[in-house]
Structure formats: structure tokens, C-alpha cells
Design a protein that fits this description.
mainly alpha; Growth Hormone, Chain: A; 2 domains; 14 helices; globular; disordered N terminus; disordered C terminus
């Protein structure tokens, strides 16, 4: 069978890759400016009220529980390119509505900007995963996930600086406007994606509820997806603990001012950037199961070590190792999910698995402070390491299992329109 230029050429020769990467960068700029501008603005308006600050997280994470599976179901029903473009346009319109409200009404409208964009992302994100399945050959899926991980790592380093600079220099009005412009630019870029493929067969009309139930059944019917669900849940518990208690490692275990947390984050982000690049280079040589197990095992060991360490240098070294290998978790999970899922179910599978991670993360975040008071910081960090180890063990039964779905046109090497 003849191969296309895309499959044998450079990964970035694929038009889809170039377009989706440009869109991702624009959205990351908008999101990081939003996150830090709104955080600093709310703290400024409420005199650092912790309840008001926590409501930002509620506005950001609540839609994942309420809309993730709904968004995934509709992503499987709708045309993915059009869905992504309209999500970005609607996000931009909501931002400009907030901007108008800020100028003539209440400052509390900023929560609406976070809420609406978070809801729409639950429709857009599974559509993007669906397009990855369609337009990227199977052997390059892992490289595609690594590309996304690298972009995320870059903005984990520069995003806080960018968001803080825009807000402190220009204020909340310009910050909100920047966010809206970034969404509009992303929508314009997505217009150049290859056209949505038309259905080649007539499918019987089904109810949304029926498709939702079919999505749950599909996940339960696939051994790989069932074990990925367990891995998602265990990793979510561990990440929630780390998100909440990292500042106490700096203050209590290392005895340093809280400002040193930025160096911990910078070390982790830099390591993620390097690790994502390495995985992208080795994507064809390492199976995604091996990547996932390596990432969860290294996370288990380094988190346990960080909890025990009282030395800044050792903690930073462990933090770097943890960041270097964590892209293996993200890339391995997403690659396995795409390779183990038929195109028609990508949105719903994403909608089932993502809330498992987020749900367990939010639960552990809410309990982490109580656990620290009852058991001690060291004990809770060792527990987080144990949950990463359990995530690794959950993948042992499928270590050698191969995806059992039919390849898409791109995976067969057939020409794709517009690429």
C-alpha cells in the first residue's frame, strides 16, 4: 500500500498539525492571561478573600463534571472542525460581554468569563481529539500528544509571567480583551483545518441519551479503557494532593519563605518541557503502555522522596526528575485512549475518562488539608506516592495488550482532503 507524504515525511509537514498547534498556542496565551489576570483582580477586589479566590477554581473545574460527558457525546454527533470554531467564537463573544459588564456594571462578571470558556472547552477538546484520530497516522499519534504536552510545559513556565505582566501593566480591561482576541484568532486559524469528512454511510437516528449509554458500555467493554479509567482515578488522587500541599513542602519541610515555590514550579515546568521533547523524539521506539508505566513509577518514587527530603538541592533534583517523566503519563494515557477507541466513540470515551481524573483530583484536594492535620505532611506525600504506584500497577494487566480498533483512513495511509 502506498504511503502518503505525511506518513513518511516530517511530522510538521502535516497541515493539520501546523494549524492545531498554532491554535493551541493562541488559546494558551488567552487562558494564562485569563487565569492570572482574574486571580489577581479578584484578590485585589476582595482583599485576598479565600472564598472568592476558591470560586475561580469552582468556575474552572465544575464544568468538567457537569459538561464533560455531554460535550463528548455531542462531539461525536457534530462536525468537529465546525464545533471547535464555534466554541472559540462563542467564548470570545462571552468575553466581550464580560468586558462590557466590567466597564458599566459589576466586577463579579469576571467569573462568567471563566465559566463560559470552561464549559465550551468541554465541547471543543474532545472534537480536537477526534480530529487527531482522523488526520494523524497511528504511528505519529504519540508524537502529536507529545507536541501538546510540550506546548503546555512551555506555558507552565512563561504563562504566569505573561498573565501577571499583562494585568499589572494594562489592568483587567485589557487583560480580558486580550483573552477575547486570542479566542477569535484561534477560530480564524482553525478555519484552515482540513474540511470535516462526510459520513460515507447512513446511520440510523439515535437519541442523545442512547448515545451516552452506548459510550459507557463501550468503555466497559474494552479492557484497555477499563484499566485506563483506574489509572486516571489513582493518578487524579495523587495530583490533587500535590496541587494543594506543595507550598507546605517549601515552608515546613525546607523551612524557606513561600516565595520559593516559584522555583519549584519553574524546575518542574522546565523538566516537563525537556521530557516532552525527548518523548516526542522517541515516540516511535517506545510503546505507550511502557511510557505510562514509566511515568507513574517515577512519579511514585520522586513524590515519596520529596515528602521525606529536608534539603533544597535534593528536593529540586527530585522535582526535576518528576517533571521530566510526567509527560510520559499524559502522552501515554492520551495515545492509548486514541489508539484503543473507534473514531465514532472518541468524544464519549474522553467524556467518561476525563471526569474520573478531575473528580478524584478535586476530592483529594478538598481532603488534603484535613489529611495533613490528622496524619502529617510526610504521611500524606507518601500516600500520594502510593497512589501513583497503584496507577502503575493498574496498567500491568494490559502491558502487552494491542489496540483492537479498525484503523481510520489516516492510519491506513490513505490520502486525506486538504493535507
Amino acid at each position: 500500500m502506498a504511503e502518503t507524504t505525511v506518513s513518511k515525511g516530517n511530522f510538521f509537514q502535516n497541515k493539520f498539525v501546523r494549524v492545531i498547534m498554532t491554535s493551541a498556542i493562541l488559546l494558551q496565551v488567552g487562558v494564562w492571561v485569563r487565569n492570572f489576570a482574574i486571580l489577581l483582580f479578584v484578590m485585589e477586589q476582595t482583599n485576598n478573600d479565600p472564598y472568592a479566590v476558591s470560586m475561580i477554581s469552582v468556575a474552572e473545574f465544575a464544568p468538567i463534571f457537569l459538561f464533560s460527558f455531554i460535550g463528548g457525546t455531542f462531539a461525536d454527533r457534530w462536525r468537529p472542525k465546525l464545533t471547535m470554531i464555534w466554541c472559540d467564537i462563542l467564548s470570545a463573544l462571552s468575553v466581550f460581554f464580560v468586558l462590557f459588564t466590567l466597564m458599566y456594571g459589576s466586577w463579579r462578571a469576571v467569573f462568567f468569563a471563566t465559566l463560559v470558556s470552561a464549559i465550551l472547552s468541554q465541547f471543543s477538546q474532545p472534537s480536537a481529539m477526534k480530529l487527531f484520530k482522523v488526520h494523524i497516522p497511528a504511528e505519529q499519534l504519540q508524537a502529536g500528544m507529545a507536541m501538546f504536552q510540550t506546548i503546555m510545559a512551555i506555558f507552565m513556565i512563561i504563562g504566569p509571567v505573561l498573565g501577571t505582566y499583562v494585568f499589572q501593566t494594562f489592568g483587567i480591561t485589557v487583560s480580558i480583551a486580550v483573552m477575547g482576541v486570542m479566542f477569535l484568532l484561534s477560530a480564524a486559524v482553525l478555519y484552515f483545518l482540513p474540511a470535516d469528512q462526510k459520513e460515507t454511510t447512513d446511520k440510523p437516528a439515535t437519541q442523545v441519551w442512547t448515545e451516552m449509554v452506548d459510550g459507557f458500555r463501550y468503555v466497559l467493554s474494552k479492557k484497555m479503557l477499563r484499566h485506563l479509567g483506574l489509572c486516571f482515578a489513582f493518578a487524579g488522587v495523587a495530583v490533587g494532593i500535590l496541587q494543594t500541599l506543595g507550598i507546605f513542602i517549601v515552608v515546613e519541610r525546607l523551612g524557606l519563605p513561600k516565595e520559593y515555590l516559584q522555583w519549584m514550579m519553574a524546575t518542574y515546568g522546565t523538566a516537563m518541557l525537556i521530557g516532552g521533547g525527548v518523548v516526542m523524539g522517541l515516540s516511535k521506539q517506545v510503546a505507550p503502555q511502557k511510557l505510562l508505566m514509566l511515568g507513574t513509577l517515577s512519579s511514585a518514587l520522586t513524590v515519596a522522596g520529596i515528602g521525606l527530603s529536608t534539603n533544597l538541592t535534593l528536593t529540586l533534583v527530585l522535582q526535576f526528575i518528576a517533571g521530566f517523566f510526567f509527560p510520559c503519563v499524559h502522552i501515554g494515557i492520551n495515545t492509548l485512549m486514541l489508539k484503543s477507541t473507534e473514531e465514532a466513540f472518541v468524544g464519549r470515551v474522553n467524556g467518561v475518562l476525563s471526569p474520573l481524573f478531575m473528580g478524584m483530583m478535586v476530592i483529594s484536594m478538598s481532603l488534603a488539608g484535613w489529611m495533613k492535620e490528622v496524619f502529617s505532611l510526610v504521611a500524606v506525600y507518601e500516600a500520594a506516592g502510593l497512589f501513583f504506584f497503584l496507577a502503575m500497577l493498574s496498567m500491568v494487566p494490559v502491558f502487552r495488550l494491542k489496540p483492537d480498533v479498525k484503523p481510520t483512513e489516516s492510519e491506513k495511509g490513505e490520502p486525506m482532503p486538504g493535507v
